[in-house]
């Protein structure tokens, strides 16, 4: 149970250690010996598609699902056999799960009442928590009278009012429209900074994960594919799945032979970056690292590798422009450039060179 | 929504609806499931065991064998009671469906406020004592009752017409009680019929009436079948209304059972009659459940 | 044109059906205010004679009290057993679910004459005829499906995540049930209780089998007042019964309204002083 006597919001978060957690339903392995260390006070996102096991993992941390093997430790305390109501972890549920028969204030005060906190203190702390989510004057309302965004804030206030050292969130923004989502993403980050507690956030939305997290754990079919900061995941994906799940990627298939990557589709050879997987069969370049220049125009710098192709589409995106190119071997590439730096003379049907700095290429399996 | 997976799994596990293949697993009961035991045991002792004892009694009292059942079919009097029961139930079902169908149809096209009112009206018999209603019908229908005296005062008829203690009297009284059992399933079925189908039929050149008969009526038939079967099954076992509104010639099986117990104390014979009624009811129900989801119908309403 | 005619005849038919359903019970009230023992219509003199008769005859009051006791106990027992069973059916893992459900709902289907006869045969041996216990046992079994149906449908509508949320906030599973689930299904439970009470209060067929000089319920007393020769007192009882039903419904509506107002006020007060 968290220390309830202190009233500043800078309580340190607790570290979470997940050790070889396993969950099986029938023949279906939902979590395949997953291990993960979450640092105290960090904002970690469990990212994955439907059925990746991310939500199951969160529910195992919360105690609603019993794992078939492995351990969950919070703050060096083994929680594996502790029932959910004795774990003291805050949680924001999908679709909020606000108690419809209670007012907002009663919802937020629920945990404090269970802890037998004095009435005046309950009132004060409920007020404070509602202030924190900017819902100070709506305590008397019923959940049904609130908008989706307001309900979300109440759910948040309810989860933090008892000052847990860990806050678990199961797709908390899933039901909101885009504008509100982005606003609440920023607010969640602010809340995370102010409270300093550990946030574990589940989402299937890669943009959301990149915007908010200190670190992302990418899950696929019950296994962790890669753990790292958003920029690590984006810039150094460990595999094709990671590369394609987060952001857009241009991929060339081939193999590393001698000192070069041999592109079998386009029958070309590319130079190798400083670090690469010698057994790798894919070379990846992110769209914003890929340049396009008309065939007759100035040649790309010599530090770049080049592949020829035909422009099949140009899309104006406001801040950026994207150019879609089909290589002569049949690969489809995307280049993305800020509008002011976008090259001239490129239209659908134009013959172009697509090029990238050798150091920007990534090679993996 | 994708991340619901974990929660869904939790819910599935705790609602026990996931398919398990092995028998041992199948027979396992969780702590929620165990909560059914008090009621199950209660009904077993208070409801099921007495029925079994009654069943057994029909074969053993006064002597072991089929004597009681033979006695039923040996007497033309008793056979007539069975015939009466069947005929009256059929008539009640027919009249009830004839009234219920247009009533339910009007409910589907009425505005919500009127629809609620019509629903409330048809549920009145649910909430008023069967005795009060039967008593009221007696006051209305008897020779010195409201209908006869009013008609005589107005000079429509010279002497009283016999309305009570007749087959018509019984049907008149029983239809009231049966109406909700027919209206509700018919209405439930009609409500699900896509009205655009009618428009489509008309759009393809059918006259409105033609579209109604060729599209709407066939689609509503499952509801009619359900309502009709429920009405018929219920009617078979009626006791109070036929006893009060029927004459000696319209005796139904329910009355005969009570009579045999209360006046001549032939328990075994009464038990045999009751067993026949029970078996008939169950057979009809089994038949009904072949093409109707009874559990859903019963659990789903209200 | 034909469409309007069809509509008009439909409405006319519905009105006639409405009259058919309502008129009989509406006739009872003026009849009960009749001075004549033949209950002629229209009543020649208005009088409370039959109501006086009702009060003066202690057997009417006695049977009403017996009915009340039986109905209240049956409703209570049916609500407890039915709610538990509904929890099991909706949330539990059960083998033979279909079979069990069929047994639990069987009292809806089996004709009351059969229930009455079988209970009578059984209770004669056990000495339970003409006892409150005997009545309560059978009436509970007849009423329990209504509780089961009501509570199940209420329970299905409750999102299990709410209980998970409560547990996450420190409530034990038992607390979570009593603080979250029970308040949410309370209207269904109360509706089930109301159904159960009325089923028992009105029940006459089984009661005819089980009643006797030692214990008679109101419906049985009314039955004997109609069966052989019409006792005009029954008109008074019937009128009162109608009033009671109307009052019950009014009361249910009123309590729901009050409940809503009170809880609004309470939370308003709580937060006004707090924030």
Write a concise synopsis of the structure shown.
The complex is a heterotrimer of chains A (365), B (302) and C (275). Chain A is of the alpha+beta class. Chain A has helices at 54-62, 104-114, 119-132, 148-160, 178-195, 206-212, 230-235, 240-245; strands spanning 16-25, 28-38, 43-48, 69-74, 77-78, 90-92, 166-170, 198-203, 215-220, 223-228, 250-257, 260-263, 268-271, 282-285, 291-294, 304-316, 320-327, 332-338, 351-357, 362-364.
Word description of this protein:
The complex is a heterotrimer of chains A (365), B (302) and C (275). Helices cover 23% and strands 34% of the residues of chain A. Chain A is built from 8 helices and 20 strands. In chain A, helix 2 crosses helix 3 (119-132), helix 2 packs parallel to helix 4 and helix 3 packs across helix 4. The longest helix of chain A is centred in the middle third of the chain and has 18 residues, at 178-195. Chain A starts with 15 loop residues before the first strand and ends with a strand. Chain B has helices at 5-15, 23-27, 37-60, 67-74, 76-109, 112-127, 130-141, 146-153, 167-191, 195-203, 208-236, 240-245, 253-262, 267-291, 294-300. The radius of gyration of chain C is 24 Å and the shape is globular. Mean pLDDT of chain C is 86; it is low at 269-275. Chains B and C meet through helix 1, helix 3, helix 5, helix 6 and helix 7 of B and helix 1, helix 3, helix 4, helix 5 and helix 6 of C.
